[in-house]
Automatic annotation (TrEMBL), chain A:
A Pfam family the protein falls into: ABC_tran
GO molecular function: ATP binding; ATP hydrolysis activity
Species this protein is from: Erythrobacter crassostreae
Keyword Transport included in the entry's annotation: yes
Span of domain ABC transporter: 11-245
Descriptive protein name: ATP-binding cassette domain-containing protein
InterPro entries: AAA+_ATPase (IPR003593), ABC_SmlMolc_Importer (IPR050093), ABC_transporter-like_ATP-bd (IPR003439), ABC_transporter-like_CS (IPR017871)
Keyword rRNA-binding appears in the UniProt entry: no
GO biological process, one term: quaternary ammonium group transport
UniProtKB/TrEMBL annotation, chain B:
Domain ABC transmembrane type-1: 15-206
Keyword Transmembrane helix set for record: yes
Source organism of the structure: Erythrobacter crassostreae
Keywords: Membrane, Transmembrane, Transmembrane helix, Transport
Lineage: Bacteria, Pseudomonadati, Pseudomonadota, Alphaproteobacteria, Sphingomonadales
GO molecular function, one term: transmembrane transporter activity
Protein family according to the UniProt entry: Belongs to the binding-protein-dependent transport system permease family.
Localization (cell): Cell membrane; Membrane
Highest taxon of the lineage: Bacteria
Name of the protein in its database record: ABC transporter permease/substrate-binding protein
Entry's transmembrane regions: 15-39, 51-74, 86-105, 141-165, 185-209, 221-240
Any GO BP: glycine betaine transport
PANTHER family: GLYCINE BETAINE/L-PROLINE TRANSPORT SYSTEM PERMEASE PROTEIN PROW, OSMOPROTECTANT IMPORT PERMEASE PROTEIN OSMW
Membrane topology: Multi-pass membrane protein
Length: 263, 521
């Protein structure tokens, strides 16, 4: 198991802003400062419209910062070649976005193919195995797959280029709870095994607490809390963070009480 | 229907010309519409302007759009030089391609707008450049919808291409227009049948490609495309085969002499008569039948066609822009000189008859109302309907007559020349703008109203030679026997033979042969 190495910063946000409108009156992200250490699994939690997705997308420049800098490996992302940057960063999102006219294997191999290198069949098989799919899946078309299988392919595609950083934007949002749980565990395991640095955006605090080793809480474009799951459960992080933590906690307490009554 | 089948099998060259024209127009339409659609999908402004323009074009009747390219190309000669063709293939191609734009553009833009946003985000997320995204994702996913647009455009274009006959481009419209003018319904039917069959076959093939693309079956769409390509290639080979494999034309050889006719029977007959004379003298001839009346003069002046028959009154008002009436001889001499000096067109001479505008009524109706001259019409005109050919009420002749006599009719109606006489017979019109050489004047027992104020100018038929052949004395000699040889009675008889229905109806070619015999050629 690799533990986060605070001395090696993979990603740093410096006063990063994203404003919309002619005068920049709409603030999506307003001045975020934060450093992400190599090997860490960071969850970015907040309500809808809190700016968490926008902040994530500024890493691979799907959204351009309107102020401040995003440093990836010490370099400002807007100075990097966009396509090359995106191939160094694995990206998984709720929409999954498998290319419907490509087979599963072609979908997984698309990143390396864009870089001019065809992924060998063994590597595709290896990636499918990583996400617990059989090698026969490679020739299937995406519309023959279940939702959970598709997102597994989405994860395999994100990992195909040996990314230095894995970005996940509500990756399990569209999945049923059982699939969601299993895939969450799988991703955490892969994170360990491959020594990844992972940032996952979610609105589900329970998911964040269970999977991540660092939780960032955002609200109205501001970073409000930056704690470990343990610290959050101990009551740190402020009022808004605690209101998010209280939801799964109360659910768990109610379930425990019901079990007590049944027992 | 033996006749119909025979005609149908004789349409090979029209069919190939039609295919080559329609395929080129659709190809050009695609070549313009697809890049425009890509641009439009990336810019709202371009989207609005491009779709707005394409929709606007669509509101222009195809016939008008085709005709409009004549003056446009003529004015562009200032830029591209005198060699720019103003008639025939080029204007037909441009007009039809413009027409094909809208369905292709609209479908392509809609397809792009409806692409799954998740897939597009993924394309960006995996690091595609915008060109890779277009090539690998947007284009293949839009293809079935784009194909549906191309399919619609193709069916429209194949239909609209029949109208290119009016600007001198051979197509399946040739038999349709010729048949409509001479009331030869088998000819009309054959043209329509061939064009509809072509449209259906193309629609079926493109439908096959569309479904193949949607189902991602390469064999299906590849096979469809191959069939379409082979069809176009076959048409090209058939049309240009002679040029490719035939003998080189010798220096000084004029090539075929091109003879024009406007859209009425007399013109078809005279074209055949002229053609026969030239063939007898050893020349190769080609016909451009059914040209728009306004197009013919410019086409002769620009040597796009070589020989035409035009009328003094037409040239006087349309080209010299004169409204006065100095009398028959002065008019003719003025035009002759003007053509020589302004256009280099040689007016070889007059054929001997006039095809003037005149007002005609049914004998019984005229007797009932006590009308024998235009002046007699004035008190009763308010209760009468006047019928004219499509251009008549815009012509100075009509304005001159109206103003000279102070005529005010109860109503005006436009008819194609053929149907004008039917309208008179059925009572839908009381008075029509007839033509003096028209065979139906005698056959339908019509009377031509006198024009005591001489408001209507003369319309002597003249033989015109383009600048290209103006100096060819051999051609002039071959045509001279026609000059002052055709009386108005002879012309009426020939016209009637073509216009009549039932027994004794002749094709323009046979009528021309009969006329030649009658005038002793």
């Amino acid at each position: 198991m690799t533990s986060p190495d605070p001395s090696a910063t993979v990603l740093a946000f410096e006063q990063v802003e994203r404003r919309y409108g002619d005068a920049g009156e709409v603030v999506a992200v307003g001045g975020v400062d934060c450093a992400i250490a190599k090997g860490s699994f960071v969850a970015l939690v907040g309500a809808s419209g809190s700016g968490k997705s926008t902040l994530l997308k500024m890493v691979n420049t799907l959204v351009m910062p309107s102020g401040g800098r995003v440093l990836f490996g010490g370099e400002d992302v807007i100075t990097l070649n966009q396509s090359q940057l995106r191939r160094r960063v694995g990206y998984v999102f709720q929409g999954i976005g498998l290319f419907p006219h490509f087979s599963v294997g072609e979908n997984i191999g698309i990143g390396p193919r864009l870089a001019g290198e065809a992924l060998p069949a063994e590597r595709i098989e290896e990636l499918l195995t990583l996400v617990e799919l059989g090698p026969e899946m490679a020739t299937r078309m995406p519309d023959e797959l279940s939702g959970g299988q598709r997102q597994r392919v989405g994860v395999a595609r994100a990992l195909a280029g040996d990314p230095e950083l894995l970005l996940m934007d509500e990756p399990f949002g569209a999945l049923d709870p059982i699939t969601r749980d299993a895939l969450g565990e799988k991703v955490r395991e892969l994170h360990e095994r491959l020594g990844l640095t992972t940032i996952m955006v979610t609105h589900d605090m329970a998911e964040a607490l269970l999977l991540a080793d660092r939780v960032l809480v955002m609200d109205a474009g501001e970073l409000l809390a930056d704690c470990t799951p343990r610290q959050l459960l101990m009551g740190e992080g402020g009022e808004i963070a605690q209101s998010l933590v209280s939801v799964p906690r109360q659910q768990a307490e109610k379930l425990a009480a019901m079990e007590g009554r049944l027992a | 229907m033996e006749n119909f089948v025979e005609i149908l099998f004789g349409l090979g060259d029209k069919l190939t010309a039609h295919i080559v024209l329609a395929a080129s127009a659709i190809g050009l339409g695609i070549a313009v519409a697809l890049p425009l659609a890509v641009w439009a999908s990336r810019s709202q402004t371009v989207n609005r302007i491009a779709l707005g323009f394409a929709s606007l074009v669509q509101t222009i009747p195809a016939l008008a759009l085709l005709a409009l390219f004549f003056p446009i190309l003529l004015s562009l000669r200032g830029v591209f030089g005198e060699g720019l063709p103003t008639l025939g293939f080029l204007p037909a191609l441009l007009a039809l391609a413009l027409y094909a734009l809208l369905p292709i553009l609209r479908n392509a833009v809609t397809a792009q707008a409806n692409l799954d946003p998740g897939v597009l985000e993924a394309a960006d997320g995996v690091g595609m450049t915008s060109w890779q995204k277009l090539r690998l994702v947007e284009a293949p996913l839009s293809a079935p919808f784009v194909m549906a647009g191309i399919r619609t455009a193709s069916v429209w274009t194949i239909g609209a291409a029949t109208l290119s006959t009016t600007i001198g481009q051979p197509s399946l419209g040739d038999p349709i227009f010729a048949g409509l003018q001479t009331q030869n319904w088998a000819l009309v039917l054959a043209g329509c049948f061939a064009s509809a069959a072509l449209a259906l076959i193309v629609d079926m093939l493109l439908g096959l490609i569309e479904r193949g693309l949607a189902a991602r079956k390469f064999k299906q769409w590849g096979g469809g495309m191959l069939a379409v390509a082979l069809g176009i290639l076959a048409a090209l080979a058939f049309q240009f085969g002679d040029d490719w494999f035939g003998e080189e034309r010798e220096e000084g050889d004029l090539g075929p002499i091109i003879i024009a006719s406007k859209q009425f029977s007399e013109q078809y007959i005279l074209a055949q008569l002229i053609g026969a004379q030239l063939e007898k003298a050893g020349y190769e001839v080609e016909y451009r039948d059914g040209l728009g009346s306004a197009v013919v003069h410019s086409a002769v002046a620009s040597s796009n066609i070589d020989v035409s028959v035009d009328y003094t009154g037409t040239i006087w008002t349309n080209n010299l822009k004169r409204t006065d009436n100095p009398g028959r001889e002065v008019m003719y001499e003025t035009i002759r000189n003007w053509e020589q000096e302004e256009n280099g067109v040689r007016v070889l001479g007059r054929l001997g008859f006039e095809n003037a505008y005149a007002f005609a009524m049914r004998e019984d109706r005229a007797a009932e109302l006590g009308v024998t001259s235009l002046g007699d019409l004035v008190p009763v005109a308010g209760d009468l309907t006047v019928g004219g050919d499509p251009e008549f009420f815009e012509r100075p002749e009509w304005i001159a007559v109206r103003d000279a006599y102070g005529l005010e009719f109860g109503g005006n109606r436009n008819f194609s020349p053929t149907f004008m006489y039917n309208a008179l017979r059925s009572g839908e019109a009381d008075v029509i703008s007839a033509y003096t050489s028209d065979g139906r004047i005698a056959a339908d027992r019509l009377i031509v109203l006198d024009d005591p104020q001489e408001a209507l100018p003369s319309y002597d038929a003249m033989l015109m030679m383009s600048p290209r052949i103006a100096g060819e004395e051999e051609i002039a000699n071959a045509l001279r026997p026609l000059l002052d040889a055709i009386s108005v009675e002879a012309m009426r008889k020939a016209n009637f033979a073509v216009d009549r229905e039932g027994e004794g109806k002749l094709s323009p070619k046979d009528a021309a042969a009969a006329l030649a015999e009658e005038i002793g050629l």
